[in-house]
Fold this protein.
Amino acid sequence: MTLTPFFETSLVVQLHILAALAALVLGPVALMRRRRDRLHRTLGYIWVTMMAATALSSFFIYTIRLIGPFSPIHALSVSTLVLLWVGIGHIRAGRITDHRRTMLSLYVFGMGIPGLFTLLPGRIMNAILFAATPVGGFATALAMTGLIALAWGLRRPDHIRLLLGRA
């Protein structure tokens, strides 16, 4: 592991990485706290701010240009900003279940999936974490995707029966 790629990149990318890492770490803590708990609310405000900072900073990163200066990942940034607004609206209206579902989805799909892509060779996080063996990032992303898919599939008993061939 080396932090050299982080320090050699632009300030916008550094901000993006730091905000994303903060959101990645704070997300589970905020999601596991009891509802209406002061710490949950405080961490939630910080998490929303970090998610918004991650999404907004992405609009100034143009490493993959497919549609003008933008790429499909920028559509994810737009949806992240919209869903943050929706999630906040849910809690203000007292729709706790909808708020929880929205924020959990944002964490999984707004952090998890893009996070896996950052481990691919040629990306800065891959260069930071897997400087000696860039293919290690691909292997890690592949393994994590497999584990996530397995955990998702095992969430329901009928999936377990199907997996064991007892459908």
About this structure: The CA atoms of residues 17 and 83 lie 20 Å apart. The mean pLDDT is 81. DSSP finds eight helices and no strands in the chain.
